[in-house]
Design brief:
By secondary structure, the protein is α+β, with helices and mostly antiparallel strands. It has helices spanning 2-14, 16-41, 45-68, 72-93, 101-111, 114-134, 143-179, 189-206, 220-227, 229-246, 270-287, 310-326; strands spanning 210-217, 252-255, 260-266, 289-290, 293-294, 297-303, 332-334, 337-339.
Length: 343
């Protein structure tokens, strides 16, 4: 019992949006369920059913998010259901139902992107104003009351929008700092370990091939010593930009040393790994230079074996890199095979 709970807690810590859906869903169910029971028992079936739909939709969204890891679809579903049901509740209860619009505003801004949440809030307010104009006295008791509600609801929405936009920007910044190398923009060693573990799991469960290419820039220390670290840094940045242009979106480039990088190639066998290494070598020979002349790299590659630990996989590729450097650099070694450097 303790271990599943700890795993769930760790997952909530890692996934911000899942934690939001879980917390908002828990308190939403806890707060709305008594109203649903009370209104159904009093014969107020329209509002009671609306409350019940919100509760059931919340439980479904929470379960879907936990099962699939997808928080976007459940968030959108909750926003639509809650907005429609809250509008119905206000129409049925009048002034007493207006109080539910304020938690709806908060819910929407937590569930979906800020602009979409703002548009949903505006749509609800427009619907209530139109309905009150068509059937006077059903929602608002006076124009002054209607105006006061619209102003306060829009003020709450605007402030929530500003806060949500700022929070989203800060989360993205933190995510970038936690997962990306600050200089080059390549993914960092921490993320690399996680991605290699995922590749091993995909091989074990679905027999999806993956390959790694460990890349080291030849004589890079000489570039720093002769031209300064600023020049060396720019060479690293240029290398990452060049590599990102050469490969598929699903492939991953990581920086895990000063001038050492790892390229994770998804759904790739040994033939594909060789082709990718030769392509990268050719692009580097054509486009990557320093003030001292062309830049070359040594590469070691390995295809993931079945039931292999990710550290053993990485060690095999690293060993091939060592062999490539010992053979004279500007070489590609993939397991026990060697491909001569391009002239």
């Amino acid at each position: 019992m303790g271990r599943p709970f700890n795993r769930a807690l760790a997952r909530l810590r890692r996934d911000f949006q899942l934690s939001i859906i879980t917390l908002m869903g828990f308190f939403g169910v806890l707060g709305i369920s008594p109203y649903a029971i009370y209104r159904l028992s009093q014969g107020n079936y329209a509002v009671g059913i609306a409350d019940t739909i919100i509760v059931l939709s919340t439980l479904f969204a929470m379960g879907y998010a936990w099962r699939t890891g997808d928080t976007r679809k459940p968030g959108l579903c909750l926003m639509v259901v809650a907005s429609l049901c809250a509008t119905l509740i206000v129409i049925k209860l009048g002034i007493n139902g207006l109080f539910w619009i304020y938690p709806l505003i908060l819910l929407n801004f937590f569930m979906v992107p800020p602009l979409l949440a703002l548009l949903a809030t505006v749509a609800v307010l427009v619907a209530l104003v139109v309905y009150s104009r068509l059937i006077p006295g059903t929602v608002f008791e006076s124009d002054y009351q209607m105006l006061s509600f619209i102003v306060t609801a829009m003020l709450s929405s605007t402030l929530s929008f500003i806060f949500a936009q700022r929070a989203s920007y800060q989360r993205n910044q933190l995510q970038s700092w936690a997962t990306r190398d600050a200089l080059t923009g390549a993914r960092n060693r921490r993320v690399m370990d996680q991605e290699l573990k995922i590749a091993v799991a995909n091989k074990r469960r679905h027999d999806i091939n993956s390959a790694v290419l460990v890349i080291d820039m030849d004589h890079f220390k000489q570039v720093n010593d002769r031209f300064g670290h600023a020049v060396g840094d720019q060479v690293l940045v240029n290398f990452v930009e060049l590599t990102n242009r050469c490969f598929r979106h699903e492939d991953r480039l990581f920086r895990f040393g000063g001038e050492e990088f790892l390229l994770l190639l998804c759904n790739t066998d040994e033939k594909g790994l060789r082709a990718a290494a030769l392509q990268l070598q050719a692009q580097i020979a054509q486009h990557l230079t320093s003030p001292g002349g062309p830049v070359t790299v040594s590469m070691g590659g390995a295809v993931l074996y079945a039931n292999e630990h990710w550290q053993d996989w990485l060690q095999r590729a690293d060993h091939q890199l060592y062999e490539a450097k010992r053979a004279g650099r500007n070489r590609i070694h993939i397991d026990t095979y060697q491909v001569a450097a391009l002239a």
